[in-house]
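SAMPLE LOG
Freezer: B-3
Tube label: C17
Construct: single chain, 275 aa
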Amino acid sequence: MLERPRATLALLILIAVSLITVSFRSPASSRIGSLKNLVSSVVDPTRGALDSLFRPLSNAYHGVSDYPSTLTQLQRAQAQIQSMRRTVLEDQGAIAALDQLSRLSNLPWAGTIASTPAQVIGVTPSNLQLSFEINRGTSSGVGVGNPVVGGEGLVGRVIQVTSSTATVLMLTDPSSVVGVRIAKTGQVGALTGQGSGLPLSVGLVVPGTPLKVGTVLFTSGLQGEIFPPGIPAGRVTAVSNPAGNLQESITVAPLCNYQNLQFVSVLKWLPGGGS
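STRUCTURE (predicted):
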């Protein structure tokens, strides 16, 4: 790669010497000016060629010598970005928690049923049961069978309790069954969980029952029901009437996001209407 620049440089020097020799044979008055022009015409291109040749090496040298400082600045910037991301996430979590608490302060469908606010403190470590823990127990008046709600509607029911904590069965658990009513027609059905990540399903609804996607289903509160009537339980996401089926095929989404659930309210109501 360096052979061509070296040959070019040698040629330029040879030409310069020749021109200088010729120049000295000219009158003295013009020799000095000509010599300046000759030197400039020879040296400037040569210097430009050498600059082009060695500039990448110079840049590489400075890049290597400045690398530790640049790396430190980059690491500092990355740390600041991570800190800003954590702050944003914490702020978003605080806003979500505040929103959940504010919604729990106004539950019109709960009527006069007494309630106790609670914080979600963990998910029950079990592959056989979809449930979570709250920080309220018998010392706060919480009992097995109490419905648990969020700001949007039904979340589950208490299935186990200690003096200071309680376990809440999610609506998505396959053992969860909730009697629901279609407000427009009065038709009742059974809302059943199908497992983690799967929608809820509604059975026992007569084929042809008018029902639109987006309709909210409410707890039926029929005699012996485990939930009081009128609590929003889920939103219809799909409806179909397969030929030959004895009931409509209805899928429903819970009204709460279990992954982001931080605060709930325990309704001090027991199956059979007691409180």
